[in-house]
Queue: 3 jobs
Job 1
Amino acid sequence: MRIVCIGGGPAGLYLGLLMKRRHPEHVVTVVERNKPYDTFGWGVVFSDAMMQAMRIADPESAAEIEDAFNHWDDIELVFKGTRQRTTGHGFIGIGRKHLLNILQRRCETLGVELVFERDVESDLEFPDADLIIASDGVNSRIRARYAEQFQPDMVIRPNRYIWLGTKKAFDAFTFDFRRTEHGWFQAHIYKFDNETSTFIIETTEEAYNGHGLGDLDQQGSIEFCEKLFAETLDGAKLLTNARHLRGSAWLNFSRLICGKWSVFNGKSHVVLMGDAAHTAHFAIGSGTKLALDDAIELANQFDRHGHSRDKIETVLDAYEEVRRVDVARIQNAARNAMEWFEVVGRRYADTLEPPQFFYSMLTRSQRISHENLRLRDRTWLEGFERWFAARSGIAVKDGDRVPPPMLTPHRVRGLSLANRIMVSPMAMYSAQDGLINDFHIAHLGARAMGGAALIFAEMTCVSPDARITPGCLGLWNDAQQAQWRRLVDLVHSVGHAKVGIQLGHSGRKGATRVPWEGIDQPLVSGDWPLISASALPYLPHSKLPRAMDRNDMDRVRDDFVAATRRAAAAGVEWLEVHCAHGYLLSSFLSPLTNRRTDEYGGSHDNRARFPLEVFKAMRAAWPSDRPMSVRLSCHDWTEGGNTPADAAIFAAMFKEAGADVIDCSSGQVWKEERPIYGRLFQTPFADLIRNEVGVETIAVGAISEADHANSILAAGRADLCAIARPHLADPAWTLHEAARIGITAMSWPKQYLSAKGQYETNLARAAAAAAQEMSK
């Protein structure tokens, strides 16, 4: 085949040498606009896994690259007058110019033609090529030419950064955060040869403009940064090799995703590679890794399907299918890290203490978890756990195992919780006439013995017409109150758990069948009138609700207050008002379901007016020493609906009205929603509201392991974790997860003590067997 690589960066060079090495009959040309052995940029970072892949792909270049690498294990944070360090992270760095020079020499040795100082305008300049590799960077002209086919999605991110270097060799991957009168600046610093380090400085647009950096030339920007980071530079100068850029050389990062990676131009197959196809933020240093992995996978697919022209289309389809998955994974982690740095000032740096800020920074991409940190640096993590426990009021003796964050106590108003895990409200639809029955007693009693600190029943309705289905719980009469007292007494008699109630009204989503008879489907008979913020059905064939008038509002408010008083009399210790998932109060908050033109519709203040009225009345009726939370849908996942920014506005309103905690869920407001699911997918909402609004939060959604909960709590992303489906599968989830991570001091019900030791022993045996298998 005749192969042309447009762009002589890592992707083009590495693909060229791999294809020539594996099939010498190929005629391979790499075309680069710069001069021979010349490049821009400073250092790049690799992982051990990347090096292993390169050793397999081309041992010769891998050996030379490894000889040039600088290795370090430590990460150091400079923040608020402190220096903190952790080890075990395993980075390797090399100068970008040195890396490309090695690849260029390897190409020449194998017989790849290198063409320099040629600026390619179009792929059509190579009509005899069978395969054209568009590796011409994030501003790819080739991709732009076929934009309709490649479907590029380019987003310019808000932060500014400048990529510099310094003749000072840092012995750790160093992050330096500096606060100025206009905002925070952070430096990402790492060594890539014996005397030189990369020095990337990043800040917000507000700080950039506040300091007038856009009005400076490069030298002015460098002098500003040298003064700001003088303590860390310790006399060293900052250097640039981007004098070709005009102005101050501050850039915005461009996030790129393409819908398709290859096209046939009529004569040649054209495929995107490296930054031309996708970008990953420097916060996790994976741009070069992605480029090299692209090259390795494409060469591997040719090995698998055949190095001939007739196989190109099959190869390119397989290449894209495989790489798209790994790229999405890396881009997701890079997005998490990038967004952390974009909001670091207002969300974390201003509010978190140095130890927790460091933990948050280390776990910013969500690829590193609590237990992964323990594997990397047990000493550091156990020191952090000791600090976290001390803040929770636990004094741990030297030599004793420190409880992980999820098992530390937490106090809200006058209520003390034994740990940070709660059983989330989960609808069982098994009541008759709203009454708790033997099923609920067995169901919730089992979970009360399972180690969680707070037990919630399902949403409990404040009137008969507030029910979602005929099987919903209620609290509108004396019989229901008596059964709630029965539940409270049971929970208190079997362990340390406290009891919470979530009060709600179904609104437009009411009068439906129980889910196993047709989820969200309207009742065939025995239904009741519905009310909502506006006269909009949930499904096209759902029962039409009536838009509430003032009389309706008065009645509903009074129903909530009456149920609140009954809950308090029954001994319930935590009250939550349900303002999420498209139910009645939620229908006022979302512009999708609130089309009113009176004082209860339109602005945030108007849409929140009635829910806040209900909340304030409930707060006045609820004992002052008992906590009260609000469950919010923090994202409607639909164009025109509420976003996390809207949720933060509402959270601030409820905080001012007396809410102690915001329970951060999302969705179920509009049937055509398109949620983006994934591990911990709703935790960012709790993080935003906790750290920007300044109110405690509950994280909920796809939290299934102790490692998840500990990571969330330790980083200060939430104060409590609500576990739902895992608690359905395992009533003793908290006890079992504690045992799985080696916590043996947690109390089990005395009736079950004979099983505790055996359970822990079996876990230890399984872990030992797995470790032995891994060592083979």
Job 2
Amino acid sequence: MAQGTVQVTHTGTSRWRRRTGEYASLAAALEAAAEGDVLTVAPGTYRENLVVQRSVTLRGPEGSPGSVRIAPLDGVPLTVRASAIVQDLHVEGQDSAAPALLVEDGAPELTDLRIVTRSASGIEVRGGARPTVRRCTVDNPAGIGIAVLDGGGGVFEECEVVSAGQAGVAVRAGGHPRLERCRVHHASGVGLSATGENSSLEAVGCEVYETRGSGVQITARATAHLTDCDVHRTAADGVTLDTDAVLTLADCRIHDIPENAVDLRSRSVLTLTRTTVRQFGRNGLSVWDPGTRVDANQCEIFDSTGDYPAVWVSDGATVVLDSCRVHDVPDALFVLDRGSRADVVDSDISQVRNTAVSVSDGATAQLDDCRIRDAATGAWFRDHGSGGTLNNCTVDATQTGVIVTKGADPTIERCTVDSPAEAGFYVSAGGRGTFQGCRVTGSGGYGFHVIDGCRTTLKKCRTERCARGGYEFADAGPDAGPGTGPVVEDCTSDESGLKQPTAHETAVETASQATSVLGAIPGQRTTEQTPPVTAPEPDKESRTSKAVLGELDGLVGLDSVKREVRSLIDMIEVGRRRQQAGLKAASVKRHLVFTGSPGTGKTTVARLYGEILASLGVLEKGHLVEVSRVDLVGEHIGSTAIRTQEAFDKARGGVLFIDEAYALSPEDSGRDFGKEAIDTLVKLMEDHRDAVVVIVAGYTAEMERFLSVNPGVASRFSRTITFSDYNAEELLRIVEQQAEEHEYRLAEGASEGLTKYFTAIPKGAAFGNGRTARQTFEAMVERHASRVAQVEEPSTDDLTLLYAEDLPELP
């Protein structure tokens, strides 16, 4: 198409100064135009690089959309630096280093533009520009669809990015656009992206879909607000937040996501209101790291397509669910790791194939006025340090209402378990727990089933219509000492002839057969009461260093770690003996750096190290106090030093274990209080060098950076011990240990299946090494339970053998 002519209507301040002219090029017309002039471009192809520097109107002919092509061979086809009006143009760019349409200043109005290009970006807004962009489309398979950066802003109304070789919309370096009723799809990268401090993105009534990256990605202290938006059919996560990102979702819909619907990490904060999350392949909400937080109100998470928990909270993160619904999922809420917390208020959890609420690895969950229905397990507090509160909750139609195992110690108050197929409340393997004012009705098994001599407290509880009996207390065996077994006060049952233990008595009962962690029901009961407990439980005797080193040697793998610890212990022991002989002893710095991935045994080794030092008389107690950034760093000046001092005081006589210590010294730490924690810690280590052993731990690369930027810290540590990842054979051994501990066996072919599984499992950020092995075993046990529950009279082999078919699918 030949280049056409340009007609310009010049408009002055007086009606007598109006005139019309025609120009052979757009550049000439723009040069001649004055403020307020209208440039009507004739149909044709213009191989010019246009710059609009005055408040003019530049438009194509009416009734002929797409007939004017701005298509230079290189450079920026169209640059706008004024509050001009540009409409009805077709813009094409070929320069991979330049945008097709660049808006650098003013508040122009850009309407009905079609940008078909292979440029760095289709539309780029920067500097002080605040354009209003209406009904524009961007087709840019080579670069970014729309880029807003360097403080740029503006409003995009009813625009569409039909393809992008990178992000559909990218906001960075302080950009802050608003998108209204826009569509972004078929992007090879992220759909909507905002990154960097002071960068923000607001979207209302928008749709993001068919992206190879995440639908929405907010990172590095950027903020975003999405209202009435749809995010769906992404190849990666639906929404991702990382590194102090802040996002608000109101009345949004996130669905048809093969990975995590929403994934948050590194102190990011998400607020969801009246938002639905459905049809996700992994977690609906995946929340990681200290300081990371989700607040959800009136939201619904449902219809999982994978085998993962709907809500996953770990590594010190926090989730609050208020008036929410979680249903039709494999597992509903998993909270794990010390410092992790979930608060659930007035919410419904239903149609859960496995566990509705799982609390493990020292995490905490608090449920108030919640309803759990149609689940295999209502709530499971799994291990030592795990706890929380269930208050005024109802649990209906489950296999087991509440399970407490392995030292977990929750408080259950005024809760009702109705129609469980097995036990209403089941406590085993050293679980504790306080049950007050709770009620079990219509149980197919026992109401309260407490075995292994667990020191559980039951107060003012009630059972009704329980098929096997209201209360079953199976003892811990012939070696159990005084003070074992539950404490029962003012509990009642409709069971005929039930004799209740008197207040403050310990009820100890025996079972005719052993029970597994899943709560297989014992047969005939016999009851024997012990005298009231009046003396406190004696302190646990400290072990010898030889015994503790034996436990260290028994850990799977970690050969280099064991050698390092033994070498250090040998140095300390010989130094102690030299001092006793009146000889000089070499100075041994006991503080250590542990590096490696999560789940490689760092916390376990730290605990054993403290116990060994106590057995050698180097430390008074040898106990372990584990902290992270959130425990040490306050929110205002002065509070950090107080928190750090308190943590140090708790660790006196033992080991202060600082996990993810590198978080105390972030790369961008201009306004961070982490340095105050480090300075306080260094001084305390110097002033009380013999009172506390400090171990700092974290990922290898991050810890190297941490020590390099803090020479004062590095100088106080004697050595670095690296914890290598477990290989497939070592992960298999961990599963074998778990199986033996819980009285399971691996059937023929299961070991080979596990080895192949651990070899093939993705080793990404969610891979937890030893934790992955434990979770795999638990998944096998749950699948085994689902299979064996269908067998009317299972044999011992049926109840104990785990097959390769019980393995979960690869994530």
Job 3
Amino acid sequence: MRRTRILTVLLALAAGLLAGSPPAASAAEPAPRADVAADSYTWKNARIDGGGFVPGIVFNRTEKDLAYARTDIGGAYRWQEESHTWTPLLDHVGWDDWGHTGVVALASDAVDPDRVYAAVGTYTNDWDPTNGAVLRSADRGASWEKTDLPFKLGGNMPGRGMGERLAVDPHDNDVLYLGAPSGHGLWRSTDAGVTWSEVTAFPNPGNYAQDPNDTSGYASDNQGITWVTFDESTGGGAGTATRTLYVGVADKENAVYRSTDAGATWERLAGQPTGYLAHKGVLDAENGYLYLAYSDTGGPYDGGKGRLYRYATATGTWTDISPAAEADTYYGFSGLTVDRQRPGTVMATAYSSWWPDTQIFRSTDSGATWSQAWSYTSYPDRENRYTMDVSSSPWLTWGANPAPPEQTPKLGWMTEALEIDPFDSDRMMYGTGATVYGTENLTNWDAEGGTFAVEPMVRGLEETAVNDLASPPSGAPLLSALGDVGGFRHTSLTEVPSMMYTSPNFTSTTSLDFAETKPDVVVRAGNLDSGPHIAFSTDNGANWFGGTDPSGVSGGGTVAAGADGSRFVWSPEGAGVQYTTGFGTSWQASTGLPAGAIVESDRVNPATFYGFKSGRFYVSTDGGATFTASAATGLPAGDGVRFKALPGGEGDVWLAGGAADGPYGLWHSTDGGGTFTRLPGVDAADTVGFGKAAPGASYQTLFTSAEIGGVRGIFRSTDAGATWTRVNDDAHQWGWTGAAITGDPRVYGRVYVATNGRGVIYGDTSDTGGGTDPGPGPDPTPTGACEVTYTVTNQWPGGFQADVRLTNTGTSAWNGWSLDWSFPGGQEVTRMWNAEHTQAGTSVTARNVGWNAGVAPGASVGFGFTGSRSGTNAEPEGFAVAGRACPTAT
């Protein structure tokens, strides 16, 4: 993937999120509160494995196999050694704090490995409405506490691959340092991250910005303090702060500072190189060397020149240990790591060597000599020290067939995260713009003629931004439109697709649709540096061919397929709305519909299309040739709207959207958009989609990402919006979910949710349906039969996490419930979500919260908790509801 392609995509993602970011709840047109029931859903990712930039990987220095990864927009993850998978840690981040899914730094506590910290915040400009925060966890990320900061952080800003900006003192682990952007300087906590104050003695807040003339504030922000490194050899013993620490600053003339008195005073390191930014500073305390990776820019896309230096901490001697002459570099250095088991072994990456490939360098003599992952034999032929197997993520080849010296799959790009396992010299992981790669036989590199094996180590880490979703009635159950990697035809939700959409490969697919009565006909629109911005398929998205762009098209926009696949309407960027019969070999300008309008099709009448722009709804009954504004009033005035027509219901249209300063909610039309009725009780809604009707129901199931009854969440209705069920919970929120949602026409209750950085989430219900959603029943407490499912989802030394599902197996609805049990092993609940709890000795009681009190016969309710343990973690005994024994499911 070329440098310009990644840059264009990521900037587009940033702008796209800005345009669709969640507005505050509207004060206009207050609606009555709706009764909201709850259902217990099981949530998973439609597997893609990776798909985005991983700028940081952190290994704990005192506990084997404990590692974390951070992403720029998709949260943080913990490594699971048993399964070689990653577990997401920030799914609890909600709509209002969506920016906290961007992680700019991670720190794992070497003194107490249960402690982990994350510095979160996505943008430092006004794209992100909230300030940054430091999250702290005492159970390895299973639960978190938060301290808000008085400034913003930039997990998706330029310079995000430098670091780590957050560090825990290896001797006094109540002391942490955080490097801030935007001129806010260096910050310190002395109470394990609870409170923070600026280190006023630190002399330099940085001055480097990627583009000082950028008026958006994105590229013009001062990248600030970029990393903090402790010299653990200077500790005064446990509980005494480390005396010497080094700090990197985004300042090409003054990049590295040192304190030798635990942060009281600071000095610029004398004799340091200038003209570069220090992306990383990694200390080999045993040999007394601080290694530094330099680039002439902040990354992660750019970098024309770079150097590697070694600083002798005892003598102050600087040595240029670069593996190439400065004149021969066309890239910056960033990824940097040392082998803690073999002092003197150091590795680095040429992170911005986009063509023909990234480069990885290795030295076993403290940088005196180097070898590299690949080299030319006789140009353009090259010889690799590695083998590469991407069969677990086959799309990483991008379907490419490049000419030498390029290869497919590539070794990587944007390779700013590089770490050797501190307990295993054979294991290394590194992040790229699309995945995490790793090896478990790294030392083969050093053998004459030896090769080490590289493969994806990314399962469970899902980091795509989702722009659109479709679930056809036949063929593949899911089609996705994604940023950066284009999108996939998901024939299986539990297996990685073999390839993204190709012919053409859009950098970002902005919209897709299928013909409702001929679902093998699919259309997608997207962004591409050069080539068509629209493509068609006649085999349900398995194979594609490009259409022809009308004059002026610069981006994908939105596209709609007629119900029978005979015609299409396209609203691209850079040109007015267009329509065509056939597959886009020629286009005609539509009239009556403004440029930039959102377009959709009626799902029954192939000649009917709909549009929306700036508060007006438009209808075409001649295949998109002409549109007429409807008389509907009271709709949202802005363009933060998404709407869809009901499959099988001609003229049945649902519209969601709004803004803080006007109407904001969910509207329904049964006359083809002529009039709309706002649904009462829906405070705000941003997406709408349809799924299979519930058993006995006459109307398809509705899904929406909305605020209903004062609660933000993912909601389902089986009675055309009369009543609603919240189907997610506080542990499963995924930040911003306002791009798209759809049910599955073949599986009742299944919903696909678009996230901005956590990929495609899908949920399946425990509710068997019944025509309407369960509401409060007549009984104040449960009196019928019940069943419990208790599952330990994660455990570690001294702690664990568990999920509990309580099912009403009786014949009467519950309106309030409490579940009692006893722990046989002395376990103690430390935090519970989706239920309130009390504990006395070994006895625990979990009670409903307000929104999940109602449980219909046959339905379930779920909650989860983290706990401490001192020994074995045996399953609880004596489950009971209202004194009635509750057997566990087998």
